[in-house]
Amino acid sequence: MAIAWLFGRFLLFLSSTFFVLLPSAFSASDSEALLKLKKSLTNAGVLDSWVPGSPPCNGPQGPWRGLVCEGGVVTGLRLEGMGLSGTIDVDALVQMKGLGSFSVENNSFTDNILELNRLELVIVNNEKGVFGLTDLMKASAEVLGNGPLGSSYKVKMANGVEVTVKRVHQMNALGSDAFDAEVKKLRTLRHPNVLTPLAYHYRKEEKLFVYQYLRNSSLLYHLHGDGESGGVLDWPTRVKIVRGIVKGLVTRVSSQRICFTRRLEGLFCLQNPGAIQKQTVSPKSDVYCLGIIIIEMLTGERPSRSVYDGNGVTDIVQWVASAFSEGRRAELLDTKIEGCRNSICSMEKLLRVGALCTNTSLEERIGIKEAVRTIQEIHELRIL
């Protein structure tokens, strides 16, 4: 359902092409602000047309190099690939009333991204087109999910561009330096199956991440659909997903930080008893997450929903545990799984691993190595 969408005053995006909406108040002319900006730069000889006493937009030689002007007002700075370095003087940018875009790609500026947060709107990476604060404020947003860490929205602007915005609540305790360090880790990720942020916003009371919106691309969609389509994964495909997850655990890709989630489920896996009681995550939190996904893929039930086990309403972890203890394993398997007629035994073995991974007792829950070994011992999972 579409809802009115207001982001607030600030957004800060990652890269070196910025689109900015600045406040109306300013204390210097464009000329003075540009000269102040030039003074903060190193190797600024290429900006030799930026001289005092010459109108930036209407000089005898035309606009100063790198300027975009409309009606005698500087609306953009295009300084790509000029060999510039130094520290961008954000004060100068703030003083420019009409500035709408600022591009400094392929230069060597000091990384002062957080300082740029003083601008009312800073958008980077124009891969999805140019949009400003007013575009976002006028756009409608569809709630994609709510969880303990925050909410996710699909935002569609008037020009058709769609992005996913994640509002994070539980990171509000992070200071700007710690938050910046975490974002830097995210933006250096390079993998075809990892969606890195297009943008982020830092304020003490609010954190936003902006991602490219990928329609029908999540495991959530392929398992459960959207009410109209999707929701069908055959058995070999589900096996490949489990093998991929296990491979990540085997290679120890920073396993203490691994949490398997489909983003819009609100990090259900972090709601495991150990994490809730001790307010910390550990390798056994990773095991719990692995178990949740195994159970979800084999039962077809969403982790965040309650199920009826014959004795009352419970969650899927308790439902699976009870079914195994009472010998009712067959009723757990998703009847929509295709290509599984001769694989019931392997499916039950894998589901058993899911039950062991989600043991509510942290001490009795199996470890990563045992979980991986047990999965690898299931013959069919090795050959599919």
From TrEMBL:
Spans traversing the lipid bilayer: none
Entry-linked InterPro entries: Kinase-like_dom_sf (IPR011009), LRR_dom_sf (IPR032675), LRR_N_plant-typ (IPR013210), PRK1-6/SRF4-like (IPR046959), Prot_kinase_dom (IPR000719), Ser-Thr/Tyr_kinase_cat_dom (IPR001245)
Compartment(s): Membrane
GO molecular function annotation: ATP binding; protein kinase activity
Record's signal peptide: 1-27
Major localization class: membrane
Cellular component GO terms, alphabetical: membrane
UniProt key word Aminoacyl-tRNA synthetase: no
Protein name (database record): Jasmonate-zim-domain protein 6, putative isoform 1
